[in-house]
Specification:
The chain has 965 residues and is of the alpha+beta class. Helix content is 17%, strand content 42%. It is globular and about 110 Å long. The relative contact order is 0.10.
């Protein structure tokens, strides 16, 4: 972040305030036609073609309105819910900047996320709980902050609320109010289970802030257990009083913990210790009751020493080689080859993998789905299939602009069995040619069921698939010639997943024992058998080509490992019909006030009534202004005190800010307005600023003592322009290109002094054209990487005054950088070079390229710069210093900067000339990443020592590299 902030800051003009550039938000193509459904408490926006699901979602939201808010004692005001249908990412969020919720409607294939619920039903409960949480601050001092500063002020009062409460409470709500929910899915909490059973109980600070060496379960998992423990011990409504006390006066350190203590007698640290002790005891008792199974063989692994590293989703390439996905804190996702008695071999580094669980292999090929962003419209995200030929290393992009969320290669590698979900929520199971991507067959789906994780049989005549229906999940076998389906396991509230045929059996994952294990069902007798008995969980069964061995991965505190068992049905143990295990929060289901009202939330269409809710066209152009913030805001100049309003429509088409400001130094005021319209292919920006300036200077250079004069004048600045942001990522390298052009006009009225400062326009006008091109291509980073280990950036800039009016100036600049691997695994080298040429005499412009650190900048006519920098991690100590500080990382770096430029001068005979000036600095940085006051948000500060080679001086500077926002 720090390098790009420096580059962005260098683009501003010296004298005038540059146009404030809003960030480019995720957009839908403007051709999309929008509609809306209004109910008593919701406005649901959806694109054309999604009406049936929008109707059902609107009714579901009304059904859960009171139950979701009951335990917190909140009845939220009406809110807008936007159904985003153009992407293939299964997600959702709630924001108050502006206030809205967005549902990404493509159902994900991951069983650890959805369970046996319909995806939109789960979003309705989980995301609406966040709406309830954000409504809770409208009381006490938090309400005053809202009155004064809008939703920005309201959001500021929530900083002290830990992320684990926000997400954990929502996971608990989806578990209590539905038949499924992540609280009933062992894969959801498998990381915490593995840590506790291995004796790894970290400090509260580390569990909140994370680590660069150990696997720390995320705030969803931590928060689910912490909030659930409090509900179990102190009642399902306990968090209502806690939040009431917090929001009455939320501004002092540890106010959340103190509110919890005043309600329950426990600080957050005590809540954490008691919760972990209780679940640890329960899981150890469960482990003691688990029957022993055959010990598997583990494939050799080469993880980074003492760093969490995963090997997952094994697939056989042949009888002696398995391909798996390697990942972790120190590795970006990569496909590796594992052999019983050989070192692992990196096969390929994929791009933005959609669902790594659907890795498949067959016929010497490997297939997986990858996200592919639209070049301009970031709400349009495709999921394309990529096929790797192992022998040649060639990767084929098989389904451009597709929406495939899962795919499996046939054993001979000639065909693919894929799940495709369109923008209307309809799921299809299709057969594709694995060489061309052409559609061969669409299997019938008259019930509009959702298919998950399909796999081929060995003879390629049949397929198995998990099907989500109204009453739950079912394991089905499909005759590919006729499309006829038969149930191998009946429909049940059991989160089965990842089927794999083998002879007369079909393997599948099931959580019915309380942990995820691999089971087998006999296709003839329907007898169920338990195959694995792993202490934590076994996942993702794969069969060797000779049909003799079963590969899978098991989770461990240090990372998953690939294991293997011989296929011997005589060793498998009978298993009864099951259902999802009871949740840790299960005792609360009977007493939660919301659970008593909502009834069962099912994924079927039985909720639809005969009379549809009224719909109407939603025209984005009529709703562009939506004020969400007021009070103190940042002005276009970024300095001084400003008061105004901020606006953004719920589809993120138009961002705007307007206000008035006051400069305390000059004692002058101004008014300004900035807008950014992002609904067209180019982003259109405009800023208008008008106000007063005051300056003081000596007007008589021969007699300065008596010539000091002050003047006050009016100024007007106008900036108009456009930028074209293009997303070009196609593989493991992140790529983007932005082209921009801006016109800036400045004029003054009432300037009476005979002279002006060089960086002010005085009595003149300025008409400046600025254009730029920026591009980057950077390798993905692991969490431990300090910077990209490979990549390039390029920046080109031209600024000129071409109209022949007012002040005249121009500047051309180019800067490029390369990232290279360092000596260590996570070290990085950056080499930069820049060149700039300008006419600085009439009106100087700021440098458009970097300049030696610690060296005063001059307005050179020509300037060439170069830099070499080496960055590395020094320590990953995970230090906890009481309740005040947690330090997970210490970073270091050294650099050498050099510049050569020409300055205007006068020769001994009085003639104008130019002189060359050379500058060089060397230095070192040390910075500390830390979390303060138990907050999850990290900060990075440090110090820089600089030696100026030209002057021989030493300089020490403080560094603020990342303030976490």
């Amino acid at each position: 972040m720090w390098s790009w902030l420096a580059l962005a800051g260098s683009l501003a003009l010296t004298a005038p305030a540059a146009a404030q550039q809003f960030p480019v938000l995720s957009q839908n193509p403007p051709s999309l036609r929008w509609f809306e459904i209004r109910t008593a408490h919701f406005r649901v926006l959806y694109p054309a073609g999604f009406e049936q699901r929008a109707q059902r979602t609107a009714r579901r939201l009304e059904q859960v309105y009171e139950p979701v808010g009951a335990s917190l004692g909140v009845r939220p005001r009406p809110v807008t819910v936007v159904l985003q249908t153009q992407n293939t990412i299964g997600n959702g969020f709630v924001s108050i900047l502006p206030r809205r919720s967005e549902f990404f409607t493509t159902p994900p294939q991951a069983p650890s996320l959805t369970g046996t619920l319909d995806w939109l039903d789960q979003l309705a409960v989980h995301e609406y709980r966040h709406v309830v949480q954000f409504e809770k601050p409208r009381q006490g001092l938090s309400r005053v902050a809202f009155w004064l500063f809008g939703y920005g002020g309201l959001g500021a009062t929530t900083i002290g609320v830990p992320d684990w409460f926000t997400e954990g409470d929502a996971v608990g709500t989806e578990t209590v109010l539905t038949r499924s929910g992540r609280g009933r899915i062992p894969a959801f909490d498998v990381e915490l289970r593995a840590n506790l059973l291995a004796g790894r109980r970290y400090t509260y600070a580390k569990s909140v802030a994370g680590s660069y060496r150990d696997n720390v379960p995320n705030h969803y998992v931590l928060g689910y257990f912490l909030t659930s423990y409090a509900k179990r011990r102190y009642g399902p409504e306990v968090w209502g009083p806690v939040m009431n006390r917090y929001y009455q006066f939320p501004v002092y350190p540890f106010s959340f913990s103190n509110s919890l203590r005043r309600t329950t007698g426990l600080r957050v640290e005590s809540l954490y210790q008691r919760t972990l002790a209780e679940v640890d005891s329960a899981w150890r008792q469960q482990l003691a009751r688990m029957p022993a199974g055959p010990a598997p063989f583990y494939y050799p692994a080469r993880p980074e020493r003492r760093v969490f590293t995963q090997y997952q989703y094994p697939q056989y390439l042949n009888d002696s080689t398995v391909v798996a996905l390697k990942s972790g804190l120190g590795h970006i996702d990569q496909l590796v080859l594992l052999r019983p008695r050989s070192k692992e071999q990196v096969l390929h580094v994929p791009g933005l993998v959609n669902l790594p669980e659907m890795l498949s292999a067959g016929g010497g090929k490997v297939c997986w789905p990858e996200y592919r962003y639209d070049v301009r419209w970031l709400q349009r995200v495709y999921s394309e299939l990529k096929v790797l030929d192992v022998a040649s290393g060639q990767v084929t992009r098989l389904t451009p602009r597709g929406r495939y969320t899962a795919a499996a290669l046939s054993p001979d590698g000639r065909q693919l069995l894929a799940v495709r979900t369109d923008a209307t929520y309809r799921t299809e199971l299709v057969v594709l040619d694995a060489s061309t991507g052409q559609q061969v067959q669409v299997l019938p789906n008259p019930g509009h069921d959702q298919f998950q994780q399909p796999r081929w049989s060995t003879d390629q005549r049949r397929a198995v698939v998990v099907t989500l229906k109204a009453a739950g999940k079912v394991l089905e076998e499909i005759d590919l010639a006729t499309g006829q389906r038969q149930e191998l396991l009946p429909t049940a509230e059991l989160n089965i997943s990842h089927p794999q045929p083998w002879g007369d059996y079909v393997f599948y994952n099931s959580p019915q024992s309380g942990t995820d294990q691999i089971y087998a069902v006999h296709t003839g007798t329907r007898q169920r058998l338990q195959v694995t008995h792993d202490s934590v969980g076994a996942y993702h069964a794969a069969i060797s080509p000779d049909g003799q061995r079963l590969a899978f991965h098991v989770f461990r505190s240090g990372g998953s490992r690939v294991a293997e068992l011989p296929l011997t049905p005589a060793q498998w143990q009978p298993a009864e019909a099951g259902h999802d295990p009871a949740a840790y929060l299960e005792p609360v289901v009977q007493t939660d006030p919301g659970a008593q009202k909502v009834g069962p939330v099912l994924p079927g269409d039985t909720l639809l009534l005969d009379n549809a809710l009224p719909t109407q066209r939603y025209r984005p152009a009529a709703h562009l202004f939506n004020v969400f913030g007021w009070g103190l805001i940042q002005s276009p100049a970024g300095s001084g005190l400003s008061v105004g309003v901020r606006s953004q429509d719920v589809l993120s088409t138009l961002q705007s800010v307007a206000g008035v400001g006051y400069d305390q130094t000059e004692r002058t005021g101004n008014a300004f307005a900035t807008i950014s319209y992002q609904g067209l292919y180019p982003v259109l920006d405009a800023t208008l600023e008008r106000g007063q300036r005051r300056t003081t200077l000596y007007i008589d250079r021969d007699d300065e003592a008596d010539s000091l004069r002050q003047d006050r004048w009016q100024y007007t600045n106008l900036t108009l322009g456009a930028r074209l942001p293009l997303q070009l990522t196609q593989n493991r390298f992140r790529q983007a290109l932005t082209v921009g052009a801006y016109y800036t006009a400045q004029q003054s009225q009432g300037y009476d002094l005979p002279y002006r400062y060089l960086n002010e326009i005085g009595r003149n006008t300025l008409h400046l054209l600025s254009s730029s091109v920026s591009y980057f291509r950077l390798l993905k980073q692991s969490q431990r990487d300090v910077a990209p280990r490979w990549g390039q950036t390029l920046f080109l800039s031209a600024r000129t005054t071409p109209f022949g009016k007012g002040l005249s100036t121009w500047q051309l600049a180019a800067q490029g950088s390369s990232y290279l691997p360092g000596l260590g695994r996570h070290h990085s080298v950056r080499v930069r070079a820049g060149y700039q040429q300008q006419n600085p005499r009439s009106f100087p412009l700021t440098a458009a390229i970097f300049y030696p650190r610690g060296q005063t900048y001059y307005n050179f006519r020509q300037l060439a710069t170069g830099s070499a920098e080496y960055r590395l991690p020094l320590l990953h100590p995970d230090w906890t210093l009481g309740r005040w500080l947690y330090v997970p990382r210490v970073l270091g770096g050294v650099f050498y900067d050099r510049a050569v430029g020409t300055l205007a001068a006068v020769s001994p005979d009085g003639q104008p000339t130019e002189v060359w000036q050379r500058y060089a600095t060397v230095g070192a940085d040390v910075s500390v990443v830390f979390n303060a006051l138990r907050l999850r948000t990290p900060f990075e500060v440090g110090a820089r020592t600089i030696y100026n080679v030209r002057s021989g001086e030493w300089l020490v500077q403080p560094l603020v590299l990342d303030i976490g926002f």
